[in-house]
Amino acid sequence: MSTPLRRISPLEVSGRAACMCDHGDVCSSFTPGHALHLIQARLASATPSEWADSIVEQTDAATGEVRVRTLDGEAWTLWSAQGAALEVQPGSPVALHRRYHVLAVGRVRFNVATA
């Protein structure tokens, strides 16, 4: 005789989908603004012509937002749970990969979401 399968309620499933960074731990999600996936980093590296040199205009460490302006004049408000706002100050040069949503601060790369 087999044991019946335990059904998981939708509430339990959505609770498990929450990222660990919501609880002060390391990101467990690769959605925009969370952990940078290896493939995402490789795709951004493989398309160097799509990086846009930018200057940081404003940062807000409390919300994790960084506002950058590309040299073409486009303004972008970005969010990262990985601490990009803690790594840059206004006036810092950065690079933004618009297609794959990667922010480069020196050699450090962040997965960013547009806010």
List keywords for this structure.
115 residues, alpha+beta, OB fold (Dihydrolipoamide Acetyltransferase, E2P), 7-stranded antiparallel sheet
SSE topology:
Elements lengths: L9 H7 L21 H9 L4 E10 L4 E6 L4 E5 L4 H4 L5 E5 L4 E4 L2 E4 L1 E2 L1
Q: Can you describe this structure?
A:
This protein has 115 residues and is an alpha+beta fold. It has a single domain, classed as OB fold (Dihydrolipoamide Acetyltransferase, E2P) (Beta Barrel). It is 17% helix and 31% strand. The chain contains three helices and seven strands. The protein has helices at residues 10-16, 38-46, 84-87; strands at 51-60, 65-70, 75-79, 93-97, 102-105, 108-111, 113-114. The protein has a seven-stranded antiparallel beta sheet with strand order 6-5-4-1-2-3-7. The radius of gyration is 18 Å and the shape is elongated.
Please state how the strands of the largest beta sheet are arranged side by side: 6-5-4-1-2-3-7
- How many structural units, i.e. domains? 1
Helix/strand order, N-terminal first: HHEEEHEEEE
CATH first level: which class? Mainly Beta
Output the number of helix runs.
3
CATH topology: OB fold (Dihydrolipoamide Acetyltransferase, E2P)
Number of strands: 7
Instruction: Specify the helix fraction band.
Output: 10-25%
- Outline the low-pLDDT stretches: 11-16
Quaternary structure of the protein: single chain
Q: What Rg do the Cα atoms give?
A: 18 Å
Overall mean pLDDT: 84
Q: Beta-strand level of the residues, as a percent range?
A: 25-35%
* Inertia-based shape: elongated
Distance between the termini: 54 Å
Give a quick account of the main beta sheet: strands, pairing sense, barrel closure. Answer: 7 strands, antiparallel
